[in-house]
Design brief:
Helix content: over 70%
Number of helices: 1
Distance between the termini: 98 Å
Order of helices and strands: H
Strand content: under 5%
Radius of gyration: 30 Å
Shape: rod-shaped
């Protein structure tokens, strides 16, 4: 069994190196996705504000003030 130990250790080290690289790659993906989510959240907020503004303008246009409020 001791004869196989160096081979087993080499295989374990190779597997560990492979797993470490996979974790690094996954971390890169998570970081990029986090950046994308932040950009999308900002865009949604901007779009929501624009929609609110348009809606308020529409309401004001459809509900003119009575003449005595001029």
């Amino acid at each position: 069994m001791n004869d196989a130990a160096p081979e087993r250790l080499a295989q374990i080290e190779a597997n560990l190196a492979h797993l470490e690289r996979q974790v690094e790659q996954l971390n890169e993906v998570v970081i990029e996705q986090g950046k994308l989510v932040a950009r999308l959240k900002k865009e949604v907020q901007r779009q929501s504000l624009a929609m609110e503004t348009l809606e308020l303008e529409r309401i004001k246009a459809n509900n003119p003030r009575p003449p005595h409020h001029g």
